[in-house]
Design a protein that fits this description.
The chain is of the alpha/beta class. It is built from nine helices and seven strands, in the order H-H-H-H-E-E-H-E-H-E-H-E-H-E-H-E. Helix 2 packs across helix 3 and helix 6 packs across helix 9.
Length: 205
């Protein structure tokens, strides 16, 4: 039963629908969704329209970079197009990881977003990620280093091991961030100093 159907008897249908849609967002439960919905209800109409238009613009304009597969509104993205970036590739699981690493100002290379991690339990094999595209890039660009910055959980470690196995025969130097990151945690939740130190102290795989 949806949250909308549970509240439809006491809440106006448009508000109930908004609550139900907000509750679908990650990390947003029914109570938070209700608070957000009533906050939107109280805001000026122009502000609400601005929010709606921003959501529509994201869906219409944002796509994946054809080189690194990060989210972008231009192709190639600004990072891939920047000739001043170092000839290194930092491999991450999700676009939010790029945002987290860029905040540290410790990394000046390029990225490659896998959009997930190898997890046989969840039915996610290498063929469902952007791994072949990474291999193609490594052969084409001959990077000085590939930093495997996947999460320090079982899927992240399995992905790192797999990437090391397929990239090393290509003559690519493959490294992993230093310890200090919380085991089992996502990169997007780590603080900037911890991420920066992990990058600076990376080790050979």
């Amino acid at each position: 039963m949806s949250f909308e159907s549970r509240t439809s008897g006491v809440t106006a249908q448009p508000v109930s629908r908004l609550i139900d849609e907000l509750a679908r967002l990650p990390g947003v439960g029914p109570k938070t969704a209700s608070r957000l919905a009533y906050h939107i209800l109280k805001t000026p109409k122009d502000d609400a329209i601005g929010l709606a238009e921003a959501i529509l613009e994201v869906k219409e304009r944002i796509r994946l970079c054809s080189v690194c597969f990060n989210t972008t509104d231009i192709d190639p993205c600004a990072i891939c197009s920047n000739e001043g970036r170092e000839n290194r590739i930092c491999v991450v699981e999700q676009p939010l990881d790029v945002v987290a690493i860029e905040r540290t100002h410790e990394y000046r290379g390029r990225y490659h977003v896998l959009h997930g991690a190898v997890s046989p339990v969840d039915g996610i094999g290498p063929d469902k990620l952007r791994i072949q595209e990474l291999v193609d890039r490594a052969q084409r660009e001959q990077p000085d280093e590939v930093i495997v910055f996947t999460n320090l959980d079982l899927p992240g470690e399995a992905t790192a091991t797999y990437l090391h196995r397929i990239l090393t025969p290509l003559g690519v130097r493959v490294t992993r961030p230093a310890s200090g990151l919380p085991v089992g945690g996502d990169l997007e939740y780590a603080d900037d100093m911890t991420l920066g130190r992990a990058l600076l102290g990376r080790r050979e795989l």
